[in-house]
Design goal:
This protein is mainly β. The chain is 4% helix and 65% strand. The protein contains 4 helices and 48 strands.
């Protein structure tokens, strides 16, 4: 009788069990079958209504989504459910919690009432949250923050918050709260997770040439493709300066950045006011544009434009540099930045580059290239033969412009073709690569506009290398170095190259670059590499890496009484040590065996550099380095970082000059050149950093930085930094 009752209940499709019973159905999503499981203390299923009702510790799993609540009813045809009681919806995109949710398990959309949400690294609350799709939800009348506390340190309240987890967050009509207090109205907030959000930086300080100063920068993410910047700076001796900038990303014409900075500089700090052209103010400005456009996978276009206007240079001091005085870090990287456009296209085995390089600022010494066309064929096997051929052909129209003497410009056109044939092979235990090379160069004119024939330079040589190694079965903890076997690798390399005398001597050519300066040479290069390797945690580690390189010049010659050929040239030693995971040392030394550059350093060590770093983990690190130049500078740098406790961290940096030396005509005495002290306080979701920096020739600065932990690149506080990409490249997204 009991079996008949159970069969009748099963046939009717009605279940009611008081324990955690499993019910399963198959979802059809995008043509794929996806199971949905429902667990609860009580689960009821009605075949007529095709509803499943579960209560008590309910858990529903569908794909990578999991919903928990106290009670839920799900229609198994529409896949729509209504859940109540401590509702929590979780998947790989984030977590939403609330008192009630209406949710479609098939397309993963729904609405949750009185909701809390978390989409790493954001936390928030809202009256309602609508999940528009698997990758987007919208919160209405709520707030978001990166602080995980129930009462966050800060939050941004908004009428509507659009979130695409791990991609972007957008809001409008916002108010910034610090604790319970509103502090600022914000028209909109737009944050792409892979880009900096807005930051405000202010830098106060004092410098000898500026006097007291205050530099400020406001950066704001305008939309998904555009960032804006505004500068407002005051220097007591120079006056007010302002500027603006834009960063644009992934537009139809590529990515890049624009900057304009202007000042009507005061002349009250100038010592000489007797000049005829003396004025009370001088206009000075910087206009810069950098861009990279990836047209397709094989083609790109890179452009850079630098225009500097400088009335001070024109009327007061012809040696002054606006870039040096206002943007010293950019000046350090390139004192005379070029303006150019570079087009590149790659073929299957070769490439072509077209460069237009034009001087924009007339006081720069430069070589205009209008144009330079370069075709490069990489090393390519010649049919089925063992030979390899490579070619580089370059056409240039040069206009070499000098600042002194101002009228001594050089204009010349040149076609240069280099053809190289090589035969790489293995002879016994040696890798051998003999080659012959022919360079043909055509000039439209020579020195004094003389008519020239084709210049030919024949070269030949050979590269030989091999490798020896021996493995030592050593497994111990000698001096705590974790030695799991030792392998000693020795790699000697010898190269020989002979250049025949060019058919046209260099003295008959305008000297533009190294191509025009070619002369006969007969030289061998020697290199010896020694490595001692072991394994730590299955990874190969170079305990010791020692490299020695030098060259030997044949055909003895004498320059100014100094022997420059027929002997070994300068010897370079490089050493890297990694005895422990927490200790690293790198250094290099130059032994000057040639007396061409400086006879007083002949047969002496002329340069030496080293860096020694200790990283003890748990917030402790120490580093020391030295830069030594014979008859020149000798500076020591040191840094120390200490995590005192989870709340406090300090760091110190010092740069000290050990002996006086002359730099740009000024004697630098034995003294401290730079000091920096930093204290950092952990404020849960923020780090507050206070630093003091003083430089001997630039004065002192105080930095106060509030850094959001979730986005360490974003700063509200005191800071200023500049970055410049290498010539021919643009780093999108870097704001400076």
């Amino acid at each position: 009788m009991l079996k008949k009752i159970l069969f009748f209940l099963l046939a009717a499709g009605i279940f009611c069990f008081p324990s955690s019973i499993f019910a399963e159905n198959i979802l059809k999503t995008g043509g794929k079958s996806q199971p949905m499981t429902i667990n609860g203390d009580t689960v009821e299923y009605s075949a007529d209504a095709q509803d499943v009702t579960a209560s008590g510790n309910v858990e529903i799993i569908s794909g990578d989504s999991k919903l928990t609540c106290q009670k839920i009813t799900v229609n198994m045809q529409t896949k729509v459910g209504e859940a109540t009681g401590r509702v929590r919806l979780e998947d790989g995109k984030g977590i939403i919690e609330g008192e009630k949710i209406i949710y479609n398990f098939q397309n993963k959309t729904g609405t949750i009432i009185d909701a809390q949400f978390r989409a790493n690294p954001f936390f928030g609350r809202a009256r309602t949250v609508d999940r528009e799709s698997e990758n987007e939800f919208v919160a209405h009348y709520g707030y978001f923050t990166t602080c995980s506390f129930d009462r966050p340190h800060y939050r941004i309240g908004s009428k509507q918050i659009n979130v695409m987890p791990k991609q972007l967050i957008q809001t409008k009509d916002d108010c910034l709260y610090i604790g319970p207090f509103p502090v600022a109205q914000i028209s909109r907030f737009n944050k792409m997770f892979d880009k900096p959000v807005m930051h405000v930086s202010v830098l106060p300080g004092k410098r000898k040439d500026w006097g007291p100063f205050l530099l400020s920068e406001w950066t704001y993410n305008i939309n998904n493709y555009l960032d804006g910047r505004f500068y407002m700076d005051y220097r007591d001796n120079l006056g007010l300066a302002e500027g603006l900038g834009l960063n644009y990303l992934n537009t139809p014409v590529g990515s890049g950045d624009f900057k304009y900075y202007y000042t009507n500089e005061s002349s009250r700090n100038y010592s000489d006011t007797s000049t005829i052209d003396f004025k009370t103010t001088y206009q000075r400005y910087l206009l810069r544009l950098r861009q990279k456009w990836d047209i397709d996978n094989q083609t790109n276009l890179v452009t850079q434009f630098y225009k500097i206007g400088d009335d001070k240079r024109k009327f007061v001091d012809q040696t002054s540099s606006f870039l040096q005085e206002y943007f010293y870090r950019e000046f350090e990287k390139d004192a005379q930045p070029p303006s150019y456009a570079l087009f590149h296209h790659s073929f299957p085995y070769s490439s072509i580059d077209i460069l237009l390089d034009k001087r924009v600022n007339h006081w720069f010494s430069s070589v205009d290239k209008l144009p330079e066309v370069k075709y490069t064929l990489s090393s390519l096997q010649v049919g089925s033969t063992p030979f390899y051929f490579e070619n580089k052909t370059t056409f240039d129209t040069f206009n070499k412009k000098l600042t002194f003497p101002p009228d001594d410009d050089i204009t010349v056109s040149r076609l240069d073709a280099v053809n190289k044939l090589s035969l790489p092979m293995k002879v016994a235990f040696l890798w051998v690569n003999p080659f012959v090379q022919d360079e043909q160069t055509v000039y439209d004119k020579g020195v004094n506009d003389a008519t020239l024939l084709i210049r030919t330079v024949f070269s030949s040589g050979v590269d030989v290398s091999t490798k020896f190694y021996h493995v030592f079965d050593v497994k111990n903890d000698f001096l705590g170095m974790e030695l799991n076997g030792l392998r000693h690798v020795i790699t000697p390399t010898v190269g020989y190259a002979y250049n025949h005398s060019p058919t046209i001597p260099a003295s008959n050519l305008y000297q533009i670059d190294g191509v025009d300066a070619l002369t006969s040479s007969n030289r061998a290069t020697l290199e010896l590499s020694n490595k001692l390797q072991t394994k730590r945690q299955g990874i190969s580690i170079d305990l010791v890496d020692f490299l020695v390189t030098t060259s030997y010049a044949f055909q003895p010659q004498f320059v100014s009484g100094n022997k420059t050929g027929g002997s070994f040239q300068d010897v370079l030693f490089k050493l890297k040590l990694l005895p422990y995971a927490w200790m690293r040392m790198e250094g290099d030394v130059t032994y000057q065996h040639s007396g061409v550059t400086s006879a007083e350093n002949f047969n002496k060590f002329s340069l030496a550099n080293y860096d020694l770093d200790f990283d003890f983990g748990a917030g402790y690190s120490f580093g020391i380095g030295q830069r030594y130049q014979r008859k020149g500078q000798n500076q020591v740098t040191g840094s120390f970082k200490w995590q005192i406790n989870p709340k406090w961290k300090v760091s110190v940096y010092q740069r000290y000059n050990l002996k006086p030396f002359i730099s740009t005509g000024v004697e630098v005495p034995q003294s401290s050149l730079e000091q920096e002290y930093v204290i950092t306080r952990n404020l849960h979701c923020w780090d507050v950093e206070l630093s003091f920096n003083t430089k001997r020739y630039d004065g002192s600065s105080i930095f106060l930085i509030f850094r959001l932990k979730a986005f360490p690149e974003n700063e509200f506080g005191y800071n200023q930094s500049y970055a410049k990409p290498k010539s021919g490249s643009v780093k999108p997204g870097i704001i400076n």
